[in-house]
Amino acid sequence: MIALVTMLVVSAPPDGWTEAARVDGIVIYNRSKAGSDVREVKAIGSFDAPLEKVHAVLDDGAHYKDFMPYCKESRVIKRDAENVWQYERVNAPLVSERDYVVHMTHELRGTTVVHKFKQANAVGPPPIKDVVRVDILDGSWELEPIDGGKRTRATYSVLSSPGGAVPTWLVNAANNNAVPEIFKAIKSGMAKHSACNAPTPTITRTPAPAPAPAPAPALAPALAESPAPSSPPGEPAPSPSP
Fold first, then answer.
1. Whole-prediction pTM
2. Phi and psi dihedrals of 225, rounded to 5?
């Protein structure tokens, strides 16, 4: 059984993050965001599964509705080897439905896979009556192999606001409370969903530019040939030296 494993020791991230909670082995941090009353969220946990399986579930956007919390609809609008544009519609309690489009990218940093997602409503369907379009959504998953690749350390970061008339204090509380449910959903997706056996998306490392070839050494100018000495009349010309 694939399970979320408690991390006994987690170092606090730098740059103004403060610990907000520890739930089910996940450490949750908050940080103020300039120009916004909504706080950023960062969470660090781990999965008893290889990185490829975790990433396959994150990339299986067409099936988010089957395992992600409150996800009513999810479909991929378009994708290529390294990009996915995905529409999602959620039906969370106490508020009206929300929807949005996210642009997801994948980046390889050494052995770490970085799965980024950012609001991209401009490429999605037009707004739907009585459904609030989410405008603030920006985050990532950083997946690092541990224990020889048998397990994965996961760092989840997000800045999100549902929009509408939801009070800021409730938004911040809900964002923190959602974190354990999201980790559980990914665990559930790996345990029972076909995404477990799906190939992980192609992630290419941008090759470093080849160094410019060294300039060839300048050739010395050709020596002017001296005219052979003239032989006195009646004498043979001297033979060249061996």
1. 0.76
2. -75, 130
pLDDT, residue 208, reads: 44
Residue numbers of the chain with a pLDDT score lower than 70: 1-14, 192-242
CA-to-CA distance for 42 and 20, rounded, in angstroms?
10
Question: Nearest 10 degrees: CA dihedral of 44, 50, 55, 56?
Answer: -150
> Per CATH, the architecture of 18-197 is what?
2-Layer Sandwich (3.30)
Query: Where are the chain's structural domains?
Result: 18-197
Q: How many helices (H) and strands (E) does the chain have?
A: 3, 10
**CA atoms of 204 and 107, how far apart (whole Å):** 7
Listed residue (124, 3, 112, 113) closest to 59, CA to CA: 113
Q: What is the pLDDT of residues 56-78, one digit of tens each?
A: 999 888 899 999 999 999 999 99
Q: Which two tokens stand for residue 124?
A: 């999605």
